[in-house]
Batch of 2 targets.
Target 1
Amino acid sequence: TTKASVSAAAGGGGGGRRVPAGLRKPALRIVVTGGAGFVGSHLVDKLLARGDSVIVLDNFFTGRKDNLVHHFGNPRFELIRHDVVEPILLEVDQIYHLACPASPVHYKYNPIKTIISWICNFCTNVMGTLNMLGLAKRIGARFLLTSTSEVYGDPLEHPQKETYWGHVNPIGVRSCYDEGKRTAETLSMDYHRGAGVEVRIARIFNTYGPRMCLDDGRVVSNFVAQALRKQPMTVYGDGKQTRSFQYVSDLVDGLVALMEGEHIGPFNLGNPGEFTMLELAEVVKETVDPSASIEFRPNTADDPHMRKPDITKAKELLNWEPKISLRQGLPLMVTDFRKRLNEEK
Ligand code: NAD
Ligand code: UDP
Ligand code: UDP
């Protein structure tokens, strides 16, 4: 019997027996791939705070040790430099699989990086997910995939429900990410059906908050960094395309609720508050600097025109919904960005 199945039988993440009421849940051993990144590091904070042991696997492609430095010295925390494209042997109860070169700038603009990233991105999503599923199968761990709203492509259904199959251009500039995640979802369901792995699938909508990469090209981080640096905010296209922005602590609560719950998903995890990019620029302006200006730039190909999650399923089955609005969450991110930009000087 593996250590994982012993701990699972005691009420751990592998499912099985319920813990009698009044008894404290036994501490779990949890792997977080991509744990040095933006979302991953906030998830690690929550898991360690509730008493679990956490192993982070990260190759630092976009993640940073800084995001986790406050846990160094904690005996329940371990950070391993590892590329999930390579196999690994571990004994744990749960695997949160976040590793993915997610930042759009890596594939949108730099032609050399686009080729490297195409390989990295697809390879990480396919080989990385396969390895983590193989690991989950061997040790009987529960596996959670962080998929994305990008699986819906440029959606023809609005808002998007989990039953929508999407509208993705398979040969477009962003398809390495979209198709990589779609394949990762496919692999997860195949391992569930074929090998009995307990899987969970989250489809994450645009998320923002402290520790986001400063220059990763995502819209919220771009606008906030630009406004703080007294540069014009770059609006792509006419700025009328929409996104729905979720604060990171809401997402982390949703990921944990999904992992601990009895439903496979997929579940949309996002904040239904929908904004055009021009409206977002206005909110950033109000929050950071009333004199901030905007500048229009050409948009990238295949940019989704609108995106907004239907979260009825997560509300009903996970008892989860986001609590923090854009106007409440943005100042928390701005404080962090201001501090980091000052340190850069
Ligand atoms: P991030 O770039 O901050 O984090 C990703 C982490 O994965 C980084 O620490 C990076 O170094 C690591 N990584 C990349 N390739 C790796 C590899 N081959 N091996 C090991 N580690 C590797 O991005 P994030 O915003 O924190 O995203 C986390 C997850 O959530 C990703 O899977 C992403 O696709 C998904 N997601 C995020 C958003 C969002 O708005 N932030 C939206 C949809 C989906
Ligand atoms: N794998 C891993 N750690 C493990 C078990 C498997 O990294 O503890 C990897 C393994 O190297 C393989 C992938 O996961 O590349 C899929 O494993 P599985 O056992 O499902 O497939 P097989 O090895 O039989 O092709
Ligand atoms: N965008 C923008 N200015 C920027 C960066 C992005 O107007 O500086 C737009 C982009 O064209 C897209 C939206 O903001 O319409 C969201 O882009 P992001 O890359 O953050 O997320 P995704 O496209 O993956 O939803």
Target 2
Amino acid sequence: MRRLRVFDTTLRDGEQSLGITLNVEEKLEIARQLVLLGIDIIEAGFPASSPGDFESVATIARQMKGVAICGLTRAVEQDIDLCAQALRAAEHPRIHTGIGVSPVHMAKKLMLTPEQVVERTAAAVKYAKKFVDDVEFYAEDGFRADPNFLVHVLEAAIQAGATVVNIPDTVGYANPWEYGKLISFVKENVKDIDQVTISVHCHNDLGMATANSLAGIIAGAGQVEGTINGIGERAGNTSLEEVIMAIYTRRDEYGIQSGIRPKEIAATSRLVSRITGVPVPDHKAIVGANAFMHASGIHQDGVLKDRETYEIIRPETIGVPENTISLSARSGRHALQHRLQELGYDVAGEELDSVYHSFLELADRKKEVFDQDLYALMGDAGAGP
Ligand code: KIV
Ligand code: ZN
């Protein structure tokens, strides 16, 4: 089995795009859950972007053990200095530095020649290596770069000491067969590529982020980057839970495994949704409220005969309890408490009385009370599945 590393950037690429800023405590709470989930690398932020982000990265680096903590930088010494400082207490620090490599990024954003971009690449990686062993280089907008130039830049990064090379589809422009082909091209043409890990980092502008990431992994990438619930810039990043379960459900065929504990997926999704305030759509793959619902008569009949007729993943696998109790105004306190317990809430005594009272008010208005209603009742509106 080939081991796939899972790199979570919910706290950097995810948070960066939301127009909201998570405080240190909120970021820490998410980071703790990411460790429980089994994430290999947590990208905790972009320390040079603000004092708050610096503090978040430094706090996560101090407190999280048994996981690599990463900070993002531009290919600029000042950014790298701050990142190294923020990561000082990390058990496994990683600096993620890089630069735009597509024609439009080089000419219009950076106003640099390709040669200057190669020089900056080598200089930034070399400088980051003074502080940490583990340096990841990102070739921003790598998918839209000239592939031969991309090879040149990646060779410069590897020669300067990069341990991981990240080839982002920054604007979500790729199709799976093209992205897979690019990763194969990099594998075949970049000198010493076998000495480093190739990472895939996709955006979802055309709804392809999961498919593109899988194509890259199958072509040989050893690390996948993404966010929980797919939150991120514009249409979002790759949904890690989707890639993880796509690999997990077919692991024997693909010969690939990750260190993820699938049972923590639902709890992680709920937590990220609650803390960021970004709801999970009902029909979202894996973590949407309807992901394990069977609505039509034919499907219900099939599932009652054999779950495999319409279910490729058992909900329990990702930590969603099988729903066997239908809650209504006729249900008692015990049934409510039982279901809440299955959803991860321990309520008893006066708290149970109060929740039960609100539950009855709701049940009088609705025929059936669903898990989403219970999450809302418990102050977790927008949580799911
Ligand atoms: O999408 C992207 O190119 C990025 C890099 C900064 C890694 O997020
Ligand atoms: Zn990105």
